[in-house]
TrEMBL record:
Gene Ontology molecular function, alphabetical: endonuclease activity; hydrolase activity
EC top class named in words: hydrolase
Residue ranges of every copy of the Type I restriction modification DNA specificity domain listed in the record: 63-192, 217-392
Name of protein: Restriction endonuclease subunit S
Organism lineage: Bacteria, Pseudomonadati, Bacteroidota, Chitinophagia, Chitinophagales
Pfam family, one: Methylase_S
SUPFAM superfamilies, alphabetized: DNA methylase specificity domain
Keywords (A to Z) from UniProt: DNA-binding, Endonuclease, Hydrolase, Nuclease, Restriction system
Family per similarity comment: Belongs to the type-I restriction system S methylase family.
Enzyme Commission (EC) number: 3.1.21.-
Length: 414
């Protein structure tokens, strides 16, 4: 390829280098992890960054722990300066954040590594490179430990990075990708704001604290769900490991992971299917049925959108149409999900049973008011889903751009 050279990382432009991270970082401040023992919190002590303080590519300094000046001085090479990178070695493995002016003088804990680039290498460019899918895959393939997975310092030091010799090109690439990061951050914040707005509306509308004008004079009272609906627990074909119960097609076999994975009120697919024999030993649910999880992750409602079956970790709720609007009931269950999770039976994992579900107190009001409340909350849901789709699309576009820019396949004008 004209203008390109082949390296162990693939083809890169002739004007680029392929260097180990240890050659890019400062000799006097090599890649190192932080303080092993922080001791008790110290008033006016040195703040230390833990893995949990690295959040969405930034340092969250709201709840930092502290250590003494003496202990921090013993780890001088991991004292932060503006532009340094901090990298999670466990938990959020490989996640990076860039230190700002306000973080100068902070130190790190054992689970976090310092990456301090030399002056001719841009830290934001390095942050984008090491955050790319290629390097994430590399890091995950080189973990140590069995129960507690951890990234060794030597692995981090040996990471080979393709990088332009011209720092101006590094800065330009980082600027382009950082623009996408800002868009992703804006969309993420917008989703959080919309979710908070919906939460507030649920608190007002589903408790009667706020009523629509045309319904203000109508009575609002509560009734047990079991008095206005039929509730049936699911069932599993036994033994569950019998392959004759499963198939590649047929009725979906709804698992807890299916209802937690898919966002929104509808359940549109399952990762497993039952054979006719398996379905005959379970509880069938049809399109439009409302189900709720009652074990592991408790109180998650879903409106089924494919012919399926549920096991005994779910209940099927039917025959409520004369008293309840389906989407109103869905939103009310969603509203009380935290309360349901706390009311489960103790054991190896908390769970509900049909008696507990039957005793859930449901507000009984006119179907017209229920419909209007559901419309407002569903509108919020649709807004959130649309923004989430934009966010996912933005992330995919950035990922594609990273593949082009961080390998030199697409060059920027400097």
């Amino acid at each position: 390829m004209k203008g390109y050279k082949h390296t162990e990382l693939g083809w890169i432009p002739e004007e680029w280098e392929c260097l180990e991270l240890s050659h890019i970082t400062q000799n006097e401040r090599p890649i190192s992890y932080g303080i092993v023992q922080t001791g008790l919190p110290v008033d006016d002590g040195i703040k230390c960054i833990r893995v949990l303080d690295i959040v969405d590519g930034k340092i969250d300094d709201q709840n930092l722990i502290t250590t003494s000046h003496e202990i921090s001085n013993a780890y001088k090479r991991t004292v932060l300066k503006e532009g340094d990178l901090v990298m999670a070695l466990r938990g959020k493995i490989g996640e990076l954040a860039r230190a700002t002016k306000s973080h100068e003088g902070y130190n790190l804990t054992r689970g976090v590594a310092l990456v301090a680039p030399k002056i001719n290498y841009d830290s934001e460019y390095l942050k984008q490179q090491i955050s790319s899918p290629f390097f994430r895959d590399y890091l995950m393939a080189h973990l140590n430990g069995s129960a507690l997975k951890e990234l060794a310092i030597n692995v981090v030091r040996r990471i080979k990075v393709p990088i332009p010799k011209n720092k101006s090109e590094q800065l330009k690439i980082a600027e382009v990708l950082s623009t996408w990061d800002k868009s992703i951050e804006t969309l993420t914040q917008l989703i959080a704001a919309k979710q908070q707005l919906k939460k507030g509306l649920m608190q007002q509308l589903l408790t009667g604290k706020k009523r629509f004008e045309e319904f203000k004079n109508e009575k609002w009272h509560y009734n047990s769900l079991g008095d206005i609906a039929s509730i049936r627990r699911g069932a599993s074909p036994r033994p569950i490991n019998n392959p004759n119960f499963f198939s590649h097609t047929g009725r979906g076999w709804i698992r807890i992971s299916d209802v937690t994975f898919e966002k929104g009120k509808l359940l549109n697919f399952t990762s497993q299917y039952l054979s006719d024999l398996g379905a005959s030993h379970s509880v069938k649910v049809e399109i439009g049925d409302l189900i709720m999880s009652i074990c592991a992750t408790i109180g998650v409602p879903k409106i089924v959108n494919i012919p399926s079956c549920i096991h005994d970790g779910f209940v099927l709720i039917r025959d409520y149409e004369t008293s309840l609007e389906k989407e109103f009931l869905y939103h009310f269950i969603e509203f009380i999900t935290p309360k349901l999770a706390d009311s489960g039976q103790p054991g190896t994992q908390r769970n509900l049973n049909t008696d507990i579900v039957s005793r859930i107190q449901i507000p009984v009001l006119s179907l017209s008011e229920q419909k209007k409340i559901a419309e407002v909350l569903s509108f919020c849901d649709n807004e959130i889903i649309d923004i989430e789709k934009s966010l996912e699309n933005c992330k995919l576009q950035k990922q594609g751009l990273m593949q082009q820019l961080l390998t030199g396949k697409k060059r920027v004008k400097v």
